[in-house]
Design goal:
This is Glycoside hydrolase family 92 protein. The protein is α+β, with helices and mostly antiparallel strands and 783 residues long. A nine-stranded antiparallel sheet has the order 9-10-11-12-20-16-15-14-18. The N terminus is likely disordered.
């Protein structure tokens, strides 16, 4: 972008152009070419409603996610503040260095710093009571964010704050009120998901007059998580205080001989804070670097060296350039706001899995021991129940092969270090949370292998996959392997587990078959049919069965409760989850007309909102279709498998127009580490990976006029929409490299070969295109 005025810097896509009268806040502007891709990212999308995204500074897949926190410090209210920041709030309690993007669970928010001039209070206070604590009010008119950069004016604290980041280091720049004392509060008690006893132990240690290190161990979502940190200031502090605020515990710091209490150099306990006073800086800014490590304080100190200087504007420019490069994998031409929505979706898809190792390659694994990465970069934050569906398939198209190989090798390394010998289920900070169901690291690995991704050992990977699929104590697998389904009287969420295990098993079979392992393939192809064992032809729904064989009664297809027959859903959302065998589903429903009618019922049902109001994850409702949660994400594409792609096209338009907006509440539900965003990115291009591992994409319709995929192999794949207009909502014809394409699917190798996919759009549906059985996407069962 060109040099911007303050008003340009504060352009808010969601609220129009708002003037930011804080020229000094931003220092030197970032130089970039006109039409920079980052200009089309609105990082505030998802920060309102239940999107649970954060607006702060990070690099693509970075270890540091430096962002403001506004949350209420009470664990019963943690869900709306799962990312720490909520757009509806009007006060900030500080800036912490670790966050989830779009998760449905709260944690992290580590190493919280809060600058202030004048008196500093030691507790955050209350949003409804200004000056009751160290939190400060702010205005969105005095806030700006873009990929790799965040800035805000703290009104009560009289400090202008800027944030940027490298992969492992967060960099702050504070400008204080002229003539006031520059102070920084460090609260090690704080995190996004707080409750009594979460902090098991912590330490703060002085390392001279400008550097602080320490650690914290917590028993949050990932029990026993250890985090180490190093903080370095751009100038020495004049005074400091180290405090243990734990009730009933005396101060346990120590001081060298001849020093006063304020000069103590170390404190340990469960409720630590530190206060640093730099005096009057005479209008000069204060800069602060923060690095984290899962290994040690020395590891965090060494990570600081990733950012050797103090040139904030240069670091901001590097972060900007990193995002320009990452977003350059997809070139979008579309009217606004669609261009911003799609580009922001691409941005959100590149926040996780996040780097999680020190510069020397050491990381902490699921056994809570330190390991050494050899020849790869260890990543964590795998929300696999969500991201195997579209996020990881998208990354195979827009990220270098080495990055995707790092993901696979991180998963396999985690399995090898797991006390249970299985792949991650929902992992962050290298540790297992046991959240959600399935063994969905398996399709991530299988999809990568089927696409020919180099850089990992397929034998090791397959061994890890089968170890996970055959681990009886996990999630009713011992019963699944014996009975062919998970019985509801022995295991909760049994219907969902059965159909998800069946899909995972199919991906193992696909990979084993390609590797020439016929016996392994046969075993898992047989297991992949197990979804049939819980499909009730009489009702047309997937249902939970007892160990004695009968379906559980009474049966209500709208019933949804945590721990019931289904996982975050009802029979209306889960009965279409056999993405590897949709022709089998067509047969179960009596043919093409049966599937079309059933999916029409999903979308067209008149549903009282109270039916699902008790389930916070069932959101974005269109009838029973719930776009705010992942089990529904492929459903609109199922019409392709019944020879009615025109109905897929119409439903996609219905979903996109109602579930995405260029606004803080622009996501219908949790972004779930990029899955909801990846859905839009794929759908906007005109195709979607219904069954990762099939090497096929079901064709929908494009929502952009033109797009170019700059592929990891150096080739370009162009998507164009002729007669692109809101009135032309249907596909009249498709051409691939100039030749008519009669089928409703695209092969992965056709994309990777480069070329051009052209959609001719029209106002009326074409009911003949894609109707033939030979034109339909892959299914394990023949049509």
């Amino acid at each position: 972008m060109a040099v911007r005025s303050p008003s340009q810097l504060c352009r808010r896509a969601c609220a129009g152009a708002v003037v930011l009268a804080l020229a000094a806040l931003h220092g030197a502007a970032v130089q970039a070419a006109p039409g920079a891709r980052t200009d089309d990212v609105n990082v505030f999308i998802g920060t309102g409603g239940d999107g649970h995204t954060f607006p702060g500074a990070t690099r693509p897949f970075g270890m540091i996610q430096l962002s403001p926190d506004t949350q209420v410090r009470h664990f019963r209210q943690s869900y709306p503040w799962a990312a720490g920041y909520r757009y509806e709030d009007d006060s900030i309690l500080g800036f912490s260095h670790t966050h989830f993007s779009g998760a449905g669970h709260s944690d992290l928010g580590d190493v919280l710093l809060m600058p202030a001039s004048g008196e500093i209070k030691l507790d955050p206070g209350y949003p409804e009571r200004p000056f009751s604590g160290y939190r400060s009010r702010f205005s969105h008119a005095e806030e700006h964010a873009e990929p790799g950069y965040y800035a805000v004016k703290l009104r009560d604290n009289a400090v202008d704050v800027e944030l940027t980041a490298s992969e492992r280091v967060g960099l702050h720049r504070y400008r204080y009120k002229a003539g006031s004392a520059a102070k920084v509060l460090f609260d090690l008690r704080s995190s996004i998901y707080d409750y009594p006893g979460k902090n098991l132990w912590s330490r703060v240690r002085m390392r001279g007059a400008d550097t602080v290190t320490g650690m914290r161990e917590t028993r949050g979502w990932a029990p026993g998580r250890q985090l180490y940190f190093a903080i370095r200031f751009s100038r020495p502090f004049a005074t400091h205080q180290l405090l243990n605020r734990e009730e009933g515990v005396e101060y346990k710091g120590f001081a060298p001989p001849g020093k006063t209490a304020s000069d103590k150099v170390q404190v340990e306990g469960k409720a630590l804070e530190a206060l640093f006073d730099f005096g009057d800086l005479r209008d000069a800014p204060l800069l602060v670097k923060v690095a984290v490590s899962a290994v040690s304080e020395d590891g965090a100190l060494a990570n600081l060296d990733e950012m050797p200087g103090w040139d904030f504007d240069a670091e901001r420019r590097r972060a900007h350039d990193a995002w320009e490069g990452a977003l350059g994998a997809v070139e979008i031409e579309a009217p606004q706001p669609m261009k911003r929505m799609v580009t922001t979706s691409l941005y959100h898809s590149m926040l996780a899995p996040s780097l999680f190792m020190d510069r020397d390659g050491r990381y902490r694994g699921p056994d809570n021991a330190v390991h050494q990465a050899e020849g790869f970069r260890f990543h964590s934050t795998f929300s696999l129940w969500d991201t195997y569906r579209a996020l990881h398939p998208l990354l195979t198209l827009i990220q270098p092969a080495q990055r995707n190989a790092d993901f696979v090798r991180s998963l396999v390394a985690s399995q090898q270090a797991s006390p249970y010998g299985i792949l991650p289920v929902w992992q962050f900070a290298g540790l297992e949370t046991w959240c959600m169901i399935g063994y969905h690291a398996v399709p991530v690995i299988a999809d990568a292998y089927m696409k020919g991704l180099p850089g990992f050992d397929a034998e090791e990977a397959l061994k890890a996959m089968t170890a996970s699929a055959d681990y009886g104590p996990y999630g009713g697998l011992e019963h699944y392997m014996k009975l062919g389904y998970v019985p509801i009287d022995l295991e909760p969420e049994a219907a969902s587990k059965t159909v998800e295990y069946a899909f995972d098993d199919w991906t193992i079979a696909r990979m084993a078959e390609k590797m020439g392992k016929k016996a392994v393939a046969a075993k898992y192809y047989a297991r992949a049919k197990n979804w049939r064992n819980v499909f009730d032809r009489a009702t047309g729904f997937v249902r939970a069965r007892k160990s004695s064989g009968e379906f559980r009664t009474p049966f209500d297809p709208t019933q949804s409760n945590f721990g019931s027959d289904y996982t975050e859903g009802s029979a209306w959302q889960y009965s279409w989850y056999m993405p590897h065998d949709n022709a089998g589903l067509v047969g179960m429903l009596g043919g093409d007309a049966g599937l079309v009618a059933k999916i029409d019922q999903v979308f067209d049902a008149r549903v009282d909102p109270a039916v699902y109001a008790h389930m916070e994850d069932i959101s974005g409702l269109i009838g029973h279709y719930a776009h705010g949660n992942e089990p529904s994400h492929h459903v609109a594409y199922l019409y392709d498998y019944a020879g009615a792609p025109y109905k897929t096209q119409a439903r996609l338009a219905q979903i996109v127009s109602s579930q995405y907006r260029d606004a803080p509440d622009g996501l219908a539900g949790n972004d779930d580490l990029g899955q909801t965003s990846a859905w839009l990115a794929f759908t906007a291009l005109g195709f979607y990976p219904v069954a990762p591992g099939s090497n096929e994409y079901a064709i929908g319709r494009p929502f952009v006029q033109r797009a170019a995929l700059n592929l990891p192999n150096g080739k370009r794949f162009i998507i164009r929409a002729e007669h692109f207009d809101p009135s032309n909502g249907y596909v009249g014809a498709v051409r691939l490299n100039g030749q008519p394409l009669a089928r409703s699917f695209l092969r992965h190798d056709e994309i990777m070969a480069g070329g051009e996919l052209v959609f001719t759009m029209q106002a009326a549906p074409d009911t003949a295109w894609g109707k033939d059985k030979s034109a339909r996407p892959y299914s394990m069962t023949a049509y």
